[in-house]
Amino acid sequence: MKQFFGRAFRDSLILAAVLYGVALLAYQSNFSGTLIIAMILASALVAFKRLDRALYLAFLELFIHPHGVLITTTIGGFSLSLRMAIFLGIMLGWGIGLLVKRYKLSRKDLVEQPHFGLLILAAAIGLIIGVLSRDPSLVFADGNAYLFILYLLPILSVDWTSRRRHELLQVLAAGVIWVSSISIILLFVFSHMDGIILTPIYTIFRDLRIAEITALDSGLYRVFMQSHFYVMVFGLLVLSMVGTSVRLKWLLGLGALTFAIVLLSLSRSFWVGLIPAVIFVLWILWQKHQPKKIQVAKYLGWVVFVKVAAVVGLVAIVLFPFPSQDLSGEDLIGSLRDRTTENDVAVTSRWNLLWPMLDKIVESPLVGHGFGSTVTFQTDDPRARAINPDGQWTTSSMEWGWLELWMKMGILGPIAFLAIGWHMISRLWSYRWTDQSWLGTGLIAGVIFLFATHFFSPYLNHPIGIGYLLFLVPFLSHKKTATVQVEEFVPAPIEAVRSKALASRQ
Length: 506
What we know:
By secondary structure, the protein is mainly α. It is built from 22 helices and 6 strands. The strands form 3 sheets. Strands 1-2 form a two-stranded antiparallel sheet. A two-stranded antiparallel sheet has the order 3-4. A hairpin with a 2-residue loop joins strand 1 (72-75) and strand 2.
């Protein structure tokens, strides 16, 4: 399956292991500062020599770790993370390359991305109002994710040939396989080991903010990583490949892996986002293939197989007889059932937050309240009530993602993101006129998934969501410089193919 697995996939997987290994070394030692400086210099050197490779590193780090703090240090009272180090290094290397004319950024490239300019303006408004209203350190902590948008500049400076786009897909696949493997290993470890082993493992994963490991009833555990977002996107790409020449065993295997992570994460926001995204993919597949009844029955059989394989796989991991434990299949079903009910403090707290947020928006609907602004509401979360028994809780991080954009950046915030989404979808829609329609379909479904998920969990104001929108930019390229033919991935320049298709109809 050359779309996702090749040399770039292998190298990215090795690099992911190296980053985690170095992070564990830094966690157990005092070398964090040295490692961060070394990463800045290494990223700058790679960015100057091979900008595309440096961007692969930036995307891979995003795919394998949700918060970017695998390594952190404090320099001059300022906390500097691995993600920030990579960002500073790449921007430094790209900037030097731009000055010496090794790279160039044309006005045309910038003009073709006006929607990102609109988002930058909205973020600037949120920054200015925030700084004028509250502690700048709080403002930066709340709004620093929007600095990720600046990656657009080096991305536009790369000539995204078919080979480079192919390698970018392999980097995505490597990140997905990595976080899926980590999640499954954690499920096994926490389902079988005792407290002596679990305590240090839990502490490391908590401190490095890799995963949220939550104890459920009957000794079960929920393993959730925000990076699971990209597993869902990958699954949508795999679903979009139904009906292509890709071998069925690959589609079924990768589909089962994706569904297993859907169940393991127990994220209701993901479930909400996947519904419209999957419906879109199925509609496109129906329009494209016009399957007969026998084919529909066959597809439904595959769907059942994927779901059963995912469930059986998770049950086998949890109930594996060594080391011994006392769980049962009924415990698994009960945990999933409890997660889908309304009797969850996260659900009630989210609804309690809604009206205070709306009241705040009404106070300043045009320009918002700026980054760092807070809302006070009544929460049922026992952790919050342990601090404030009356349940009153003030936060600057809100679950209602679209409303948070509006509240902090004014109406321009959500409008900018909607404009970017429409721009991406309209450009990717052109893939329907190529033999790579699966790619456009899957990437569009990813946008739908992102925007729907953001209703209940904030992803667009996080590097994960912003990063996905930037990840799409190379696939919008119209440059006719592709010289390396990669099997089952080489779309012709989009506009050229579309024009040819339209001409043939006249």
